Amino acid sequence: MTDIDSIVLNFSPTGLLVMNAILAIVMFSVALDLKPSDFAQLLRAPKPLLTGLASQFVVLPTLTFLMILVLQPSASVALGLILVAACPGGNISNFITHRAGGNAALSVSMTGCATMGAIVLTPLNIAFWGQLYTPSREILSVVEIDPVRIAITVSLMLLLPLLAGIVLYR
Questions:
Q1: Which of 8, 11, 91, 120 meets the CB 3.0–4.6 Å disulfide criterion with 23?
Q2: What is the pTM of this model?
Q3: Residues 6+ positions from 81 with CB-CB distance below 8 Å
């Protein structure tokens, strides 16, 4: 039986570039059906956006922590679950929302806001929830995030394809 802590994932820079390019293309395809007025509606009635963000950064980590308390996984698995719960949704959720006929402008707005908020909120959530579970407290280390690199990646994967799709639609 393999010890889960001995498994290492290595993503090559080329593989990450290809994956990010594919996600940008998906975002562009979603944006082809969006209009600036779709986003103006969210500014007039921000409750769904705020509810979604609160769910992402408060409700999901809380429910995940409660699940950890019930299941009592190993420290590394608990931290992995906390990490996944603390991270924002990705671009693929925008595509699925669009294909399902949902509110794509809301999905895109949530992705953008959550990704930018994650620069601060993800490390705080990981530190907070990870410290509360005694086994993970022992292996919890400082989470380092480069906000400039994240901003550039978000711009290239989310903002640039979004703006290009909306402009092309017009």
A1: 91
A2: 0.72
A3: 64, 67, 68, 73
